[in-house]
Amino acid sequence: MDLILYLTLVSVFIFSTVDSLMFHLDPNTRKCLKEEIHKGVLVTGEYEVNALPGQNVDMMVTDTKGQHFVNRESTEKGKFAFTADDYDVFEICFISRVPHNMRGGRHEIFLQTKHGVEAKSYAGLGDAAKLKPLEVELKRLEDLSESIVQDFAYMRKREEEMRDTNESTNSRVLYFSLFSMCCLLGLATWQVLYLRKFFKSKKLIE
Which own/partner contact pairs does 146-155 have at CB distance under 8 Å and 24+ positions apart? Predict the structure, then answer.
């Protein structure tokens, strides 16, 4: 029983998907954070930007196709949430805008994101379904276990795709090597025959 509890806690810490960080944004610059998100995964976030007189910060979330999931102008703090339509790399960008006639200062930005199981509100789920705290925790662990299984299945699929690509590349390299050797042998044979014919025409050999 202790071993099962230990493995569960280790899994929770390993597969926890809560990212929290703080960084600085220089005047009139753009800073983006990228992350790969699987299809159908819920992503939530919360951010806060320290206010500076005369300066504005825009915040947006986009994918590689340029689709905007979140777009906030002149924002200081807020929350956002979206669900990934497909497996893609998403960018969370903060853009500083400072008038050209003033010297700007650096913004301090705090950002916290959650996705997957950690993004779900189990407190609200427990209240709506009238579940006990232990049942809510078991539901969360069940969803976490399912998420782990899905991650492993995806990793296995990627491993199979990479293996197939590797085998295909090896086959192509082998065929190209055989083709190159045939070309070299053909060229060498043609050279020998040509030189033999040339030397015979000059009567240097019989």
Answer: 147/15, 147/116, 147/117, 148/11, 148/15, 150/38, 151/15, 154/38
